[in-house]
Design brief:
By secondary structure, the chain is of the alpha/beta class. The protein is built from 15 helices and 14 strands. The protein binds 1,3-dihydroxyacetonephosphate (13P) and iron/sulfur cluster.
Length: 346
Amino acid sequence: MINKIKELKSKLGNKVAIPAHHYQIQEIVKIADFVGDSYKLAVLCSKIEAEFIVFCGVRFMAEGAVVLASADQKIFLPELSAGCPLADFITAQNMENALTEISDVISEQIVPVVYMNSSNDVKEVCGRNEGAVCTSSNAKKIVEYYFQKGKSVFFAPDYNLGINTAREMNIPESNIIKVHRDLTFRQTELPATPKLFIWDGNCRVHKRFQINDVTDFRQKYPQGKLIVHPECTEEIIKTSDLSGSTAKIYNEIKNSPGGSIWGVGTEYHFVQRLALEFPDKIIVPLRKSVCSNMAKISLKNLYETLKSINDHLENGTQLRNLVTVTETHKVNSRKALQKMIKIVEG
Ligand code: 13P
Ligand code: SF4
């Protein structure tokens, strides 16, 4: 299968580009043209010139590419059912309702900051309301940007990334308000200063890490360092040594001296790949927690997608696994994505 993919890839040449997220299996990463965290891949997709982009990741990432690429580029997801249950925690209607309810009880403007792990429809509401997208690598920077302007922020859908960002920013407890999925939230004793309203969603892959996993790691590897993703609970972040996006996790481990011992609290396939890539270090998963959606991308469906592109070019047959978004929603979701890039890149 690997050889067949390589053959097709070289035949298609620079007509096709394959970006892959860090959570993809080793075999896919080796074939990919680029690998990165969600921020890096989003920026790349706004720059790649290939006519066909085959995204090895999950749906929200491919949708981001559709929005950021130009209209004549086509984006594919080798398995269209590869979604993100965290993204499904909030709908565009939930967003609209939450923004209305919050603006009814505060005097300053409420601006949405939506995590990249959200649908394009949710990003549309974000852009229409002057908000920005964020990823785990820049959430603090984006929230700070609005706080400095005296605006309150509605952060969705990941509660853990929201609360971990609030802790990093030292936002007082009174200014942090959890918005429950039935739209109820604390409405009393709200201070006049900017507040962070956080939606109650979570990633089940990262929620699995428990404090006893940390205790076990510390007991087994007293000299080891623990690095985790900010989608983990606040308790796990507090008891770990470092936290950050998949790119930060990758770089910290890559740049550590040989012989270093690392416990890693994020998706299992990624940890497995780190251990293979850096055999001079001891790299262990905090717990074996797999993202079954990321794992839906296989050599087989990647091959089938490339073959469908090749057949289309040769015989005009129908393309498979093409990702599209509601055309009328593109303008505002692009605005929200570009706002993130502008804040980050300065
Ligand atoms: P990164 O932005 O850190 O790559 O994370 C994406 C993700 O889905 C983590 O679960
Ligand atoms: Fe979504 Fe969690 Fe999988 Fe990341 S690990 S893609 S947040 S389900």
